[in-house]
Write a structure and sequence with these properties.
Number of domains: 1
Helix content: under 10%
Order of helices and strands: EEEEEEEEEEE
CATH topology: Rieske Iron-sulfur Protein
CATH class: Mainly Beta
Shape: globular
Largest sheet: 4 strands, antiparallel
Distance between the termini: 22 Å
Structural class: mainly beta
Length: 130
């Protein structure tokens, strides 16, 4: 399950207000201001495509490639803790990466995410960090 970021007034993995520095396994992904409200931003983190998504006052990070077709999920619609792929309408839960609507049947990886100051940090598994 993805850790949620520390947004003012919201839950978070790193402590209130996002003032606790992420450990060394976290890599800066983007500026928090670059992530639209109830929207997504596609970034590369250590050569891995990552969708940074803001929904319901929380920040999520998941692999930015649909498991049904190889298109960026960051270009899809965001609603109700869900990202919907723009190509065929596959839906994924932002918290788990599990598909919630066809045609996708395989989940997409989710990544732990934290905010610190004005930035978003993501931790990738060793096998994905290149």
């Amino acid at each position: 399950m993805t850790d949620t970021a520390n947004l003012p007034g919201g839950p978070g993995a790193g402590g209130a207000g996002g003032n606790i520095r992420p450990d060394s396994s976290y890599v800066r992904a983007c500026a928090l201001a670059d992530v639209p409200e109830d929207g997504a931003l596609g970034v590369e983190v250590q050569d891995t495509p990552v969708a940074i998504i803001r929904a319901g006052g929380e920040i999520f990070a998941l692999h930015d490639v649909c498991s049904h077709e190889e298109v960026p999920l960051s270009e899809g619609d965001i609603y109700d803790h869900t990202v919907e792929c723009w190509l065929h309408g596959s839906c994924f839960d932002l918290r788990t990466g599990e598909p919630t609507g066809p045609p996708a049947t395989k989940p997409v990886p989710t990544y732990p995410v934290q905010t610190y100051g004005d930035d978003v940090y993501v931790s990738l598994p060793e096998q994905e960090a290149r």
